[in-house]
Amino acid sequence: QATQPIVTTHYVKGQRLRTDNPDGKIQIIDVEGRRILDIDTQKHTYSEITFEQMKEAMQNAQQQAQKKMEQDPKAKDAKANVNVKFKVTPETGTRQIMGQTSNESKVQIEMEVQAQAQDSGQSSQPSGPFNGTIVTTMDMWVAPSVAGYQELGQFYGQMSKEINWVPPSNIHVDPRASQSLDELQKNSANLKGFPLLQYMTM
Predict the structure, then answer these.
(1) Distance between CA 150 and CA 144 in Å, rounded?
(2) Helix (H), strand (E) at residue 133
(3) pTM, two decimal places
(4) Strand 45-50 relative to strand 35-40, pairing
(5) CA 150, CA 18: separation in Å to the nearest integer?
(6) Does residue 201 carry a pLDDT above 80?
(7) Which of 58, 69, 165, 184 has the most CB atoms around its CB within 10 Å?
(8) pLDDT by residue (tens digit) across 161-178?
(9) What is the pLDDT of residue 29?
(10) CA separation (Å) from 114 to 79, 83, 130, 133?
(11) 52-103 confidence digits (pLDDT tens)
């Protein structure tokens, strides 16, 4: 079933976004009310969480993960650096998809991991290092004039202003990742529009 088509329907009105999933589940994000509703039409149940509760839950989860790492001597001695790079490449190709003229854009994400773990014994020599890179490439065909795209973009812009959660101070962010995000932001004009077709390679 993982390879079967999935159809979702999105409704946008002002500061509310409703998403209907094929399994009968519905999610409503209410930016003005600062809450998220999840409805299960099969079980006739619903749940509600506010933006404040979601932020608190995320912070609690990170605190528990940090506490678990502090209690685990192996995790405590582990050292890892993660560097994320983004690259956006606009292509010259165009393609007709569902009656829309779409432009090709490619996004490449490189996640470099450098880690070394200390031995659990008396020796302080590292038992590493361990290096690896995960490269994800997304080839997208983007149509700039799909009806409703602007409204959807405006909604997510409003939502990003309301949910201004930031990592806690004890989480180190590699400055190179920030530079990569700046690069992605500068090239975001190449991604404007609605992706009608995407190919992902890892």
Answers:
(1) 9
(2) strand 130-143
(3) 0.61
(4) antiparallel
(5) 16
(6) yes
(7) 184
(8) 777 644 444 444 455 555
(9) 94
(10) 8, 9, 6, 9
(11) 998 888 888 888 888 887 787 665 555 667 788 888 887 778 999 989 999 8
- Kindly write down the DSSP assignment for every residue of 87-116, as one continuous string: EEEEEEEEEEETTEEEEEEEEEEEEEEEEE
Residues linked to residue 114 through DSSP beta bridges, in sequence order: 81, 131
101 beta partners: 96
Q: Can you give the length of the chain in residues?
A: 202
Q: Which two tokens stand for residue 80?
A: 């890892």
Tokens of 87: 């690259």
What is the C-alpha to C-alpha distance for residues 36 and 30, in angstroms, rounded to an integer? 6
Of the chain, the end-to-end C-alpha distance in Å amounts to 20
Q: 3-state class of 158 per DSSP?
A: helix
Which residues does residue 95 pair with via DSSP β-bridges, in sequence order?
102
- The two tokens of residue 148 are 């409703």
CA-CA-CA-CA dihedral for 170, 172, 178, 179, to nearest 10? 150
Residue type at position 202: M
Tell me whether the omega of the peptide bond preceding residue 22 falls within 30 degrees of 0, making it cis: no
On whether the CB atoms of residues 104 and 94 are closer than 8 A, the answer is yes
- How far apart are the C-alpha atoms of 56 and 51, rounded to whole Å? 9
- How far apart CA 195 and CA 68 sit, in angstroms, is 40
Which residue type sits at 129?
P
DSSP lists the bridge partners of residue 87 as 108
Spell out the SS3 assignment of 51-90. Answer: HHHHHHHHHHHHHHHHHHHHHCHHHHHCEEEEEEEEEEEE
